[in-house]
Write a structure and sequence with these properties.
7-stranded mixed sheet, 396 residues, Beta Polymerase, domain 2, Serum Albumin, Chain A, Domain 1, 20 helices, binds adenosine-5'-triphosphate, alpha+beta, binds magnesium ion, 12% strand
């Protein structure tokens, strides 16, 4: 066993010393066995939440009614969840009640897919009652038990199946796939916020092409927020090499290809954060610019290097490598700009007021803009005297 499990080992040790069973579980074990980067570390234990809290001095109640306590240890947080069983699900999305139990196997049984139903003990031994390791080797996403039952208990699992396909490049096992087709309509029962979490991970996946194909083939796509607005784009999306795109880049390509006038309507339906809506609106504008023009110094200055690089990656996807500029070239162009933002200018509005003896007004902003552009484009140097001469000559 190697880090980052090493750092979580003391938690398991302390639980064991107090007489409880405790294991690493879920995604961390899966990713460890796959040699992928490990995200959050989840621990499952036979200790009840109150018992967990009495063992560790620093804890946060993050979901105590579901049995989850966040243990803070050496500055890191570990989600420690009591073995539990979920009984009777309501409205395809939540268990009516959870019952704390003492069996690891029963706890693993409530999990969505066999590859997520693995546990690892302190010695590094894997507990795998549903043959998850076999599915890891065969690259299969398979429900624990009956797929239709599992999807009817919590319909979000259908989105999770496709999100894991996007991240891992696995196939969806046949019976699991057939249940997706049959039960796709149940996704409408699920809160958009929960769907968005899986969708964002799906958009960033290295195998998103096949995941998008599955979204279409299962009919799940038609159950997603704003699917009508995005329906033209999704077909096009599949024609491009999208696997290397990050989540925001995928959004941008999808929005562009769907020909949406303003991304706000679509993104509001998805309940994305406001900051992302604003960012994508601006990125969409820059992508449209880029499809008609080369980067000019002023466009690069206005867009900023991060946005320009992002737009260029999507442009590369649409127009091909021959037409796009490398990130190295773009960064060099940006670094060579005479100024990178307005604060870099050697004059400000007060100078213009002094030189003209005029009172402030809309003209001031307008002329600051002209000067800024002239400096960025290298028509005048960023030098107070040079700017003054140019300005007084033009202003008249
Ligand atoms: P990631 O690497 O993205 O964190 P993960 O597999 O760890 O992936 P989480 O959402 O962090 O996914 O959930 C942790 C574990 O909890 C899963 O591996 C799975 O065992 C279980 N789980 C999570 N959500 C569900 C669900 N809706 N139904 C059943 N089990 C679930
Ligand atoms: Mg996780």
């Amino acid at each position: 066993m190697t880090s980052p499990f090493e750092s979580g080992k003391p938690i398991i040790e302390k639980l064991n010393e107090a007489g409880f069973e405790a294991y690493f579980v879920g995604g961390a074990v899966r990713d460890f066995l796959l040699g992928r980067k490990i995200g959050d570390i989840d621990i499952a234990t036979s200790a009840k939440p109150e018992e967990v809290k009495s063992i560790f001095p620093k804890t946060v109640d993050v979901g105590i009614e579901h049995g989850t306590v966040l243990v803070i240890y050496n500055g890191e947080g570990y989600e420690v969840t009591t073995f539990r069983k979920e009984s009777e699900y309501e409205d395809y999305r939540r268990p009516k009640s959870v019952e704390f139990i003492s069996s690891l196997e029963e706890d693993l049984q409530r999990r969505d897919f066999t590859i997520n139903a693995l546990a690892m003990d302190l010695n590094g031994d894997i507990h795998d009652p549903f043959n998850g390791k076999n599915d890891l080797v065969n690259k299969m996403i398979r429900c624990v038990g009956s797929p239709s039952e599992r999807f009817m208990e919590d319909a979000l699992r259908m989105m999770r199946a496709i999100r894991f396909q996007s991240q891992l490049g696995f196939q969806i096992e046949e019976e699991t796939f057939n249940s997706l087709v049959q039960l796709a309509h149940l996704l409408e029962k699920i809160a958009v916020e929960r769907i968005l979490i899986e969708w964002s991970k799906l958009l960033g996946g290295k195998y998103k092409s096949s995941a998008f194909q599955s979204l279409i083939d299962t009919g799940l796509f038609q159950r997603l927020p704003a699917n009508e607005e995005l329906s033209s784009g999704i077909q096009d999306f599949l024609h491009y090499e999208v696997n290397d795109l990050e989540a925001e880049e995928s959004w941008l390509l999808l929005l562009y290809k769907s020909n949406v006038q303003s991304p706000y309507t679509v993104l509001k339906k998805w309940k994305t954060p406001k900051a992302l809506q604003k960012k994508l609106d601006s990125l969409l504008m820059w992508l449209q610019f880029r499809l008609k023009h080369e980067w000019t110094p002023f466009a690069l200055y206005r867009a900023g290097i991060e946005n320009a690089l992002l737009v260029e990656r999507v442009f590369n996807c649409i127009a091909g490598r021959e037409l796009s500029v490398s990130s190295y070239t773009l960064k060099t162009l940006y670094d060579q700009l005479p100024i990178q933002n307005r604060e870099d200018l050697f004059i400000d509005g007060n100078d213009l007021l002094k030189w003209t003896n005029h009172t402030p007004g809309p003209w001031l902003k307008e002329w600051m803009g002209y000067i800024e552009k002239a400096v960025v484009e290298g028509r005048i140097g960023n030098d107070k005297e040079e700017i003054r001469e140019w300005f007084l000559n033009e202003f008249k």
